[in-house]
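User: For a benchmark we're assembling, each entry needs the component sequences followed by a predicted structure for the full assembly. Here are entry 17's components. Please fill in the structure.
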Amino acid sequence: MALQTFLGALARGALAMGAVLVISTAVFRWRVVRFPVELSVVAASVVALGYAAAVAFARRKSLLQVAEVIDRAGKTHDRFLTALAFSESNSPGAAPSSHQEMQRLAVRECVEFVRNGRFERLVQVRWPRQAVWLLVPIISVMLLQWQAQIAIDAKEAQIAEARSTVEDTAKKLEALAREAEKAQAKTSDEKLKRMAERLKQGADQLRAQAISPEEAAKAQMRELSALEQLAQEMQKSQSGATSEEMKTLAEALAKNEETQKAADALKAGDLEKAAAELEQALKDLQQRKDEKTADALSKDIQEALKQLAAQQQLSEAMQKLAQQMQQSQQGKGASSEAMQKLAQMLRRMQQQQQQGQGQSQKGGGSSSQQSLESLLAALQNMKYGQGEKDGGSKPQDGKDGKGSGMVAMQSFSNEKSGQTPGAGDPNMPSGHPGSEHDEGTTDSVFGKDRKESVAEAQAKQISGTAGEGENSMQQFIPSASDNSKSNRRYKELYNAMAPAAEDAVLQENIPLGSRFFIKRYFEAIRPKE
Amino acid sequence: MTDTPNLENKVQEFKASFTRIRDEMAKMMVGQEEILEGVLSAFFAGGHVLLEGVPGLGKTMLVRTLADAVNLRFSRVQFTPDLMPADIVGTNMIVEDEQGRKTFQFQQGPVFANIVLADEINRATPKTQSALLEAMQEHHVTVGGAQHQLDQPFLVLATQNPLEMEGTYPLPEAQLDRFFFKLKVRFPNAAELNTIMDRTTANERPSVAKVLHDPQEVMAMREVVRQVPLAKEVQAHAIDLVLATHPDNDGATPLTKKYVRYGASPRGAQALILAGKINALLDNRYHVSKADIDKAAPAALRHRVILNFEGEAEGTSTDEVIAEILKLKA
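Assistant: Structure for entry 17:
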């Protein structure tokens, strides 16, 4: 009886757990996640068994109750019940009365009836009727699992494809992180360390978010944009020349008597005065026409700048200045031009300091700046290189940025601030809306390769001798050639960038009043069909 | 253990006698096996029977046949509105002896018989009806301050016509409760009527053999009935059935709660168990089963359950209430 109760409860419990399993499998199937069938079935079985045991224990019956059940099932006219009741009430030692005699007769009759009858079928353990319904959850779970397996396989293939898509970028990010760590080890700059960590994190996130090719592309763009933004922010905080650069320059200027005052002002940190002294020294030099002194002065300055450049602690402005001076030397130009340029640079630095852009510099800040620029360049290269479907153009390594031109090419912050970027500007992404030459001809989305661009720019460099007065100038035009058009059409670029832009917009909580303008903006930059 | 063979014999004798009496009565009463069995059960249980049926169904014949079969004295009282109690129980009459002295002498009424047929009992006034109360329950009557014992066995078979209710006095609950069974005599079907015609319109009429010869045999058979044991659980089942007829009881069924005003009395449970014992013996068993109790329930409880006004208005019968109880308490 208890076993039958247990089996019945087991069947009911199994049905309930089967329903739970079907629902769970369906949910997992919907989420396209692998359902732990074996573990779940074991857990469900344990729960059902526990439930059945509890029910069997709670509904355990006494002998009389069992006898009643058998009597009812076997239509025995309560013979089991009577026999049990009378056998318990008749004590063996009691004197037999007529009533007890009748009870004995009753028991005897019951025993004979039971002996002659066949009641095995009444106590036979039967399979619960509900058990057949267990087929429903079993088949349902199997079908759902089969279908889920197909979906999961497809998803895994998709993820594998997406991983393979982002793996290259992730590895490059890790390489950049290692480079940043190396640079950080040299300079002990916390920002570089943070940048390295962010790069590693970005690589990990990139791999984690690569669940589909579309998502992988979006994630790739998102991560690179975030890293680029971080690098740019770090770079902004380190603009301007460092104190070491100033010191080196001051020492170079101090070697010559004519520029001694400027060196003192530079050491004192008074850039305005140093510029004024340099201009005064330039005037004196021009008046005296002392070629020997001018040559010596030019050599000293050039040597100092080269030394700085060799130490890779030279800012962009310094690099350009050294380059210009070298050209001036080759072209036997007067060192006055170099001095004039140096004075202009000092004035600009003074202005930057006044504008608060120049922050207090730490030791080794120039190196950090260069590392950040290199990272930024590499990130931008990777970012915009991702837009190409074939991915044929190999992203430029940030390490290659050392030397002239490479870093400056990738940076938007340059000395031409205030100028309106036009078509063919290598420092701006090609295919800018409104560009008339958006035909796509260069290898990079930024225009031509920086080296090539610089080489062409050098070929077209306007050089000359400074004339009388202040209007004598030499202008370096780092523009790309006429052919520096993007090899990618704006429409393709837009399609590549649109998901990242869309993601960025979706992540922001844009006020209702601003949505109209944002919508108009995106409509405005949408390529025409 | 020495009594066991004797007891077994008694049981077997009981069954044989019961069957024979039934068969003899069946000669005269065609197609009324339930009525015959019910009357005999009540007779051997020591109870009285209220027969309800339209006139002409052989109720008087039934009683007379029973008296013939068990060889007991039979009397018949036709209840009418002007019937007085003394007409039933008897009265003290002035009798003059040989010396000319006048004394009161009790003149027994028709109740002084072993089997009394109270025909159309609901036509008599309640005063007259109640004259039977003492006789039915106590088996004696009191007249003029003197108590007169009735002969044993004593069985009252009362009849009432369910159709003609005008000018009748329905039996009070107290008197109804005295009846062991209330049996409804149904109208015979065509086949039974054919048999009745064949037996009653020919020259040869069936004769009833005497199965029992001594009233003591009846008393012995009643003793055997009372010796049949029953398990406590079976007895509890009988009590459950009775309690289920009470609308204010927790075990009351929906119909009981809705239509019943008063439930069965403890006499109802007694009737159930005694009838169950006879049913067990007739089934060759020495113990009572729940099925035996259930079988006796309609006849034992239908007159003990009093319907309320709503039940009467709805036309609900007490048999429906009892059927629901049996179904739910099975």
